[in-house]
Amino acid sequence: VQCRRGGGRGAGAGAGGKGFDSLRDVWLRGGLSPASIERLAQADAFRSLGLDRREALWAARALNRVGGEEDLPLFGRAAMTAREADVHLPALRLGEHVVEDYRSLRLSLKAHPAALVRDELTVLGVTEADRLAALKDGARVRTAGLVLVRQRPDTASGVIFMTLQDETNIANIIVWPATFERFRAEVLGARLCAIDGKIQNEHGIVHVIAERVHDFSPLLARLAGGPLHAALAPADEVKHPHGGAGGHPRKVRHHLVPAEVMPKGRNFH
Predict the structure, then answer these.
(1) Do 130 and 262 have their domain in common?
(2) DSSP string, 34-61
């Protein structure tokens, strides 16, 4: 959304090259429904108008609520004779913004969730991903990050490859079948996952061989200042390591209780 001060020929520019001067102006001239504007506000799309996400949501939810002609775009500019007093809302904290970014966009450019709980992770003995390459082969380590990918190729004899991401880099994890059976719920369910294991460093290619898996997702509650909502959701189907009748692997379905807003990671077979 382009504000009037911005100039140029952005998508938000109105007639004569003038941008929008308020969220209400976007509604009156942009042809968007209040529901669409509210979704844009949830995605923090109105900063060019000087509106914080919370302020934009407040303004969006005030659109088309009075029910008079002044709330119809056709009469909007001609009939506006009075304006409500401005409401000053407390700004969202950075962690709250990150949670809302993930809720709306599935990512955030403001900060990585792991960076915002780094103090807690350090107390728990977690090593940042960008320091793993400096460790010797066979060194024991604990690392943690958001789960990006879980892979279980048919040709890997039941081995699971996980990719974790923190604010510094990614960490590649190898989970042997026996370890997966012990920590199935954590491997499949954790949004913020921690791995205890050994470094495998061969010719600069670094993996962590998992020995224990922890679900650190509850730490993400700190971002929003309280517990994140948990929701039961079916896990992606994962091939069982032991074949069924006729040697064909059977599929089993599990249920996760993850932190709601963070991505649960993509599963590949």
Answers:
(1) yes
(2) HHHHHHHHHTTTTGGGT--HHHHHHHHH
- Nearest-angstrom CA–CA distance, 23 and 55: 10
Q: Say if 110 falls within a structural domain.
A: no
Q: Domain count of the chain?
A: 2
Is the pLDDT at 101 greater than 60? The verdict is yes
Residue 76's identity, in one-letter code, is G
Q: What is the pLDDT of residues 35-67, one digit of tens each?
A: 888 888 888 888 888 887 878 888 888 886 554
| Residues composing the chain | 269
Per the DSSP assignment, residues forming a β-bridge with 199 are: 208
Chain Cα centroid distance, residue 1? 23
pTM above 0.85, yes or no: no
Q: Are 149 and 263 in contact (CB under 8 A)?
A: no
Q: How far apart are the first and last CA of the chain?
A: 41
Cα angle at 30 between 26 and 31, to 5 degrees?
125
Separation CA 215–CA 144 (nearest Å)? 9
Spatial contact of 210 and 176, defined as CB atoms under 8 Å apart: yes
Interatomic CA distance for residues 259 and 263, integer angstroms = 9
Looking at the structure, do residues 217 and 152 belong to the same domain, yes or no? yes
- DSSP letters, 52-88, are -HHHHHHHHHTTT-S-SGGGSTTTHHHH----PPP--
User: Which tokens in the block code for residue 204?
Assistant: 């600069």
What sign has the CA pseudo-torsion 225, 229, 234, 240?
A: positive
